Amino acid sequence: MHHAHTQTPVMVEAADILLRQLRRQGIDFLFANGGTDFPPIVEAYSRAENDGTDLPRPMVVPHENAAVAMAHGVWLATGRMQAVMVHVNVGTANTINAVMDASREQVPLLVLAGRSPFSEKGRHGTRTRYIHWAQEMFDQAGMIREAVKWDYELHLPEQTADVVARACEVAESTPKGPVYLTLPRDVLAAPSIEPDTVPPRPPVRAGAPHAEHVAAMSEALSAAERPVIVTANAGRSALAFELLSTLAERHAIPVANLHQRFVSIASDHPMNAGHDPAPHVREADVVVVLDCDVPWIPNFTNPPEGCKVFHVGEDPVFARYPMRSFPSDISIAAEPAMVLSALLEAMVPDEAMISKRRERLTPKIAASRKALAAKAEPKDALTPEYVSRVIGELAGPEAVIVNEYPLRVEHCERTLPGTYYGLSPAGGLGWGLGAALGIKLASPEKTVIATLGDGAYIFANPTACHWAAEAHGIPVLTIIFNNALHGAVRNATMAMYPQGAAAKSAGRMLADLSPSPAFECLAGAEGHGERVETVDGLKPALERALAAVAEGRQALVNVVVDY
């Protein structure tokens, strides 16, 4: 007699589904700093090794701030969102600095964190260490909530694939940003009745600009005698770089950067108006604020009465900033490249007006560049301006420079998109070296240089970063501008109290970082380290360091600068 067999459902743990869904979402790396919440993840990776399942590459990074910065760097290089996993609440606390940077820079990241097991006994994955009680919080996500777009806690193993898909959908929808998901250990270890992954859900992209807005901006720019485009981030898109370069040249419109974070226009472009928009804004009749959160500082500069102001970007009003009161005639929520393309189609060249603008701007820009060049000439001591110039000369046009404050980008020629990245406006220090490692990981064929102040280098958790560079084979060149000082603290003090008591000690109170460590000794067991104190020693030292990186070794040059 034939007996029918009831098929038993295939049961897999939530951790397996989590990792498979991450890979299906296009996530290449899982940057991790583990803890007692990680065993289900470790076991899932080990099972996958045995059966050949394709999962995100696990990357141990022994500090959470560095792990998030590396994920940020991979996104800068590839445009592909990455994931980070950290240890419960304490690991989350260590991510917040870098997550704030990513949030303000509209960088999508998936931050995963363990959570104390729900159960106290009886379940697989239950609490088995004394810390599992103390590490539980009423609202673990509360500490990071303002810096992320979305947060959630995994409640049931059968939710896993949908929860990950939802997290990625939100993170990559415009305006992009980080998201946060907590993972109780006993849920991660539980079998799921839904073992399959789900298709990724396409994120929302910024739409095209309204035709009437394009017409209004086109008309205003065409008729303007003194227009200016102010940007910080337009160059995050290579297409926007090309279109902005064409628009500026064709219509003789100057482009000024304020706290540049991407290469939006080439250093040698005839309409590159430098890094101080203030002189142009003060006399402008039209200002286009292109993917820029702070186009001028109202305490010092404002456009004149009657000037038309247009804000353009995926989030042109920066809705997550509590206060931002720049005037606007029209704010256009669209991808900058789409707006620039529409403008190029809509604007009919007025040759007489274009000639008038070009005749006014060409000598002005030339004089500014000449004055800048004089500041970067070698002097008795090493200056940040001269060091920046030499870095630009030796790096070449295709090297990628990641700058955390000290590099004077106006003196460091950058002519190609994707070859310069600056610190997020959130100002969370410790980002630059990790981001450089992420870029190198994603682009091993490129030379990647991290330029850091000595304070920023300390914030970078350099032991963790240099370990990651060596362990994972990611050779970057770290250049420290060492003035034994938190320059931002000193500069802010001197600006507020130029004749005050603090000025008598050059504003070094609570900014002094002397005695300065021998940073050149920290480049790793197989790395190359040098200290430079003289103008004559700079180029040879940088050339040796670049050669070491080309050989596959990380390198660090500790450059003692005058200020």
Automatic annotation (TrEMBL):
Keywords recorded for this protein, A-Z: Thiamine pyrophosphate
Listed Pfam families: TPP_enzyme_C (PF02775), TPP_enzyme_M (PF00205), TPP_enzyme_N (PF02776)
GO BP terms, alphabetized: isoleucine biosynthetic process; L-valine biosynthetic process
Domain Thiamine pyrophosphate enzyme central: residue ranges: 215-343
A Gene Ontology term for the protein's cellular component: acetolactate synthase complex
InterPro entries: DHS-like_NAD/FAD-binding_dom, THDP-binding, Thiamin_PyroP_enz_cen_dom, Thiamin_PyroP_enz_TPP-bd_dom, TPP_enz, TPP_enzyme_TPP-bd
Source organism, top-level taxon: Bacteria
Signal peptide: none
Residue ranges of every copy of the Thiamine pyrophosphate enzyme TPP-binding domain listed in the record: 414-559
Residue span, Thiamine pyrophosphate enzyme N-terminal TPP-binding domain: 14-141
GO-annotated molecular function: acetolactate synthase activity; flavin adenine dinucleotide binding; magnesium ion binding; thiamine pyrophosphate binding
Similarity field: Belongs to the TPP enzyme family.
NCBIfam families given in the database record: PRK08327.1 (NF006203)
Protein name (record): Thiamine pyrophosphate-requiring protein
Organism: Jiella avicenniae
